Amino acid sequence: MIELLQFDFMQNALWAALLCSALCGILGTMVVVKRYVILAGGVAHAAYGGVGLALYAGISPQAGAVGFSLALALFMAWVMLKKAARADSIIGVIWAAGMAAGIIFADLTPGYGSDLMSYLFGSILAVTPEDLYLMAALLAVAMSVGIPWSREIAAFSYDEDFARTRGVPVTLLHFIVVVLISVAVVFIIRIVGLILVIALLTIPSSVAEKYSRSLWTMMGISCVLSAIFCISGLALAVRFNLTAGATIILVASAVYLLSLLIPAGGRKR
Prior knowledge:
Layout: H1 8-33, H2 37-57, H3 61-82, H4 87-108, H5 114-121, H6 129-146, H7 150-158, H8 160-165, H9 170-192, H10 197-210, H11 215-240, H12 244-259
Helix pairs in contact: 1-6, 1-9, 1-10, 1-11, 2-3, 2-4, 2-9, 3-4, 3-9, 5-9, 6-9, 9-10, 10-11, 10-12, 11-12
């Protein structure tokens, strides 16, 4: 793999792995702590509908995926607030409808849409500099929100009722976090694919949660774990000619299973 770093595509893949790790560490922590896993899954499958629509309309698949996912993510965020008792069922319907819409639009599009396959299974070796700029911009936005509002986000993450009594804008934070997660999901799909994106968002944070005493420690550990999973999975994929996204998730899953056998140290949070 070291020899391959002289090539631009491999350098882009490495940078993508690092940026993806930071996004997964920060936003994946929110997904795990706030129990937004089904929402992230709904966004990921809605993205497929956006890609299919974009190909049918002849526009950028990335733009179509972001726009379509963002619109449905805002609706899902509203459902989680107003229809909490039925949120999982409604999001499940959106999940299925988004995927089905992508397939139908792909059927209606003349020719073969290679972008559809890359969104399904990921293509980290095909990441472009533009993809890196977009991920870096999203990471900057996430940090610009998280750093000034660190105490508010911590309260919002663990106890919304307490946060409201302290004047924290819980509803606003809910929508901000959902928007950031939805855009991050679309970008991470380029790395590991729609099928595996939820695993990369949740596994590092789930492992980190066991050994963390605060939200910010959990994010830091999750970022490091994500980087280890992505880089080691990429190296193994290159070495043995495997699909990079699937290899990354297998490495992450192995570590997660190992963590179940190792007791957490210290006091619980």
